[in-house]
Amino acid sequence: MAGYRIEVDRELCCGAGLCADALPTVFDQDGDGVVVLRDPTPAPNLLPDVEDAEFACPATAIKLHKPEDPAA
Ligand code: SF4
Which residue among 32, 49, 62 has the greatest number of ligand 1 atoms within 8 angstroms of its CB, and so is best to mutate? Predict the structure, then answer.
């Protein structure tokens, strides 16, 4: 799928680091462990991994917007 995008809420992030471990080209962490979004529009082939990261985030700090999503 093309055209999806990611948002992260740094206020919600609890610094667990699961996202950065799973997808280091997309997510990073700053010196305090808070998520830094490196790539808000990753390649289409990474979508399943991004969905997994969104699901796995314990702080629900990752939001995935797909083109068919009215809120995208
Ligand atoms: S998995 Fe969630 S809580 Fe952990 S660093 Fe990433 S955004 Fe933050």
Answer: 62
